Amino acid sequence: MTAGRSLGLLLGIVADGVFGDPKKGHPVALFGAAAARLERMAYRDHKIPGAVYTGALVGSVVALGAVAEWAGRRRPAVRVVATAAATWIALGGKSLANEGTLMGRSLNDGDVAAARKRLPSLCGRDPQALDTTALARATVESVAENTSDAVVAPLFWGALFGVPGLLGYRAVNTLDAMVGHRSPRYLRFGWASARLDDVVNLVPARAAAALTVAGAPVVGGSALGAWQAWQRDAAAHPSPNAGRVEAAFAGALEIRLGGRTVYAHGVEERPVLGTGRSPDAGHVTRAVELSRVVGALAGVGAAFVALITRR
């Protein structure tokens, strides 16, 4: 059983690396469309309807994953295929690297208009309010955060709980992106989604920060700087999780992140992470390289944990 899960995780990682996200019919996109339809029916400006909405959607996905996991209990091939498919669905490593690389190229070419057009694929900031430096900063921060959210965290939950862990985590993270932000519409309705996302990312975010420390020298970065920035600056970040890996990336790349952050729903003043200079296009490229290294380390670690965990 454990070997099947471990092999399935590795095959899913390879599938993500080779194929990335399908452009049409991605299960996450289909889930998002279903969640949007349900939101139109269930929305009320209150926490309780939001909690029911979140619980119903996440619970349904976990139940589907549990059925797939159960079907493979005595069929090793089914278990491997189901785990591989769920891993491929849950991961977003190649898409993240592709978007980060294209952003780096646009910034390196001085094509601010192209970079602004592409930024919404990475984060929800207002691109028209950002200059070249701010676009680079937004990209590095998004690459760092999504390395945890789209790579390390799904592998963590997949290693421990298999298909239900992979699909359930992806459902939670998708709902957080849809309704978990602090806009007037979702401040109460999205509260449960946001808090659940905080909980399921508590350990993975810190694992991602630790892997950033370990992987920093591979891209010519500073392991000591990553550790110091993580320990010194992360707690001041408004997110209990994103600040950990963002601070570690800042220290590893010897740059300064944080500061004024402009969203469509308002402006936030973020604490400064790191003590280096402001990021540029070159740092975007290195952030993508570091993300790949962290993802590779997470994949090896997840496969090992799955192999030794008896479930």
UniProtKB/TrEMBL annotation:
Species assigned in the record: Actinocrispum wychmicini
Record's subcellular location: Cell membrane
Metabolic or biological pathway, per its Swiss-Prot or TrEMBL entry: Cofactor biosynthesis; adenosylcobalamin biosynthesis
A family per Pfam: CobD_Cbib
Protein's UniProt keywords contain Cell membrane: yes
Membrane topology (UniProt): Multi-pass membrane protein
Gene (name only): cobD
GO annotation terms (biological process): cobalamin biosynthetic process
Main location: membrane
Function: Converts cobyric acid to cobinamide by the addition of aminopropanol on the F carboxylic group.
Family indicated by similarity: Belongs to the CobD/CbiB family.
The name this protein goes by in its record: Cobalamin biosynthesis protein CobD
GO molecular function annotations of the record: ABC-type vitamin B12 transporter activity; threonine-phosphate decarboxylase activity
Organism domain of life: Bacteria
UniProt keyword list: Cell membrane, Cobalamin biosynthesis, Membrane, Transmembrane, Transmembrane helix
